[in-house]
């Protein structure tokens, strides 16, 4: 049967910044369990949708009780496939992720929707769904309960990682904003009486 999880978050940043942070969120100090990320496929469709498929490698630390049941040589790396669709016209990012190995122990399928918040246009709404199941006979229910608890914990850290990436992006934008403000104030400074107008500067096309 499996377990189902649903949550909503409101991110206090515009969608285009959240989209940029999504692609740049690794590495970050809150997701040290993510070891690698590789783009397997990327395409822009005739409808101007960006389709991507990435492979993520993560570590998988078993709980203490599981280490007494499952072989000690069991691989701790988890391979996760992530499909995503970006619609720049609708301001939406939809992702679907699922693990490729350890499926008998536990399968986690996640679907996320990042969209512009209708009530707060400068915010982004995140809807998250997850389906967690196990095929271990006699232990499926406790494994699924553990899976839900770990999933919630991981998502808390994932949001911290996304905020970390957002902060970096926004801090990089600040110098440009300050520069624009200084340039604007220079343009609007009054010239001394009888001073000749400042000639327009010709742009350097080969800079």
From TrEMBL:
Signal sequence, start to end: none
Transmembrane domains' residue ranges: none
Pfam families: PRELI
The PRELI/MSF1 domain, residue ranges: 2-174
Region ranges (Disordered): 170-207
Gene Ontology CC entries for this record: mitochondrial intermembrane space
Stretches of the chain forming a coiled coil according to its record: none
Top-level taxon in the UniProt lineage: Eukaryota
Compositionally biased tracts (Basic and acidic residues): 170-187
Family matches, as PANTHER family: MSF1/PX19 RELATED
Protein name (database record): PRELI domain containing 1b
High-level lineage: Eukaryota, Metazoa, Chordata, Craniata, Vertebrata
């Amino acid at each position: 049967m499996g377990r189902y999880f649903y949550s909503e978050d409101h991110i206090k940043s515009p969608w285009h910044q959240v989209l940029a942070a999504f692609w740049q969120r690794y590495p970050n100090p809150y997701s040290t369990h993510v070891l690698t990320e590789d783009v397997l496929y990327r395409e822009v469709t005739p409808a101007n949708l960006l389709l991507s498929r990435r492979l993520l490698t993560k570590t998988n630390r078993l709980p203490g009780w599981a280490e007494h049941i499952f072989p000690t040589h069991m691989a701790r790396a988890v391979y996760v496939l992530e499909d995503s669709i970006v619609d720049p016209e609708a301001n939406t990012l939809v992702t679907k992720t699922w693990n490729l190995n350890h499926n008998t122990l536990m399968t986690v399928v996640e679907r996320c929707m990042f969209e512009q918040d209708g009530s707060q246009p400068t915010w982004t709404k995140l809807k998250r769904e997850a389906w967690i199941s196990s095929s271990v006979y006699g232990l499926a229910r406790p494994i699924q309960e553990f899976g839900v608890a770990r999933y919630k914990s991981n998502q808390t850290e994932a949001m911290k990682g996304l905020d970390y990436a957002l902060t970096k992006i926004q801090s990089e934008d600040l110098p440009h904003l300050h520069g624009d403000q200084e340039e604007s104030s220079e343009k609007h400074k009054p010239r001394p009486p009888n001073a000749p107008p400042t000639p327009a500067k010709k742009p350097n096309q080969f800079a």
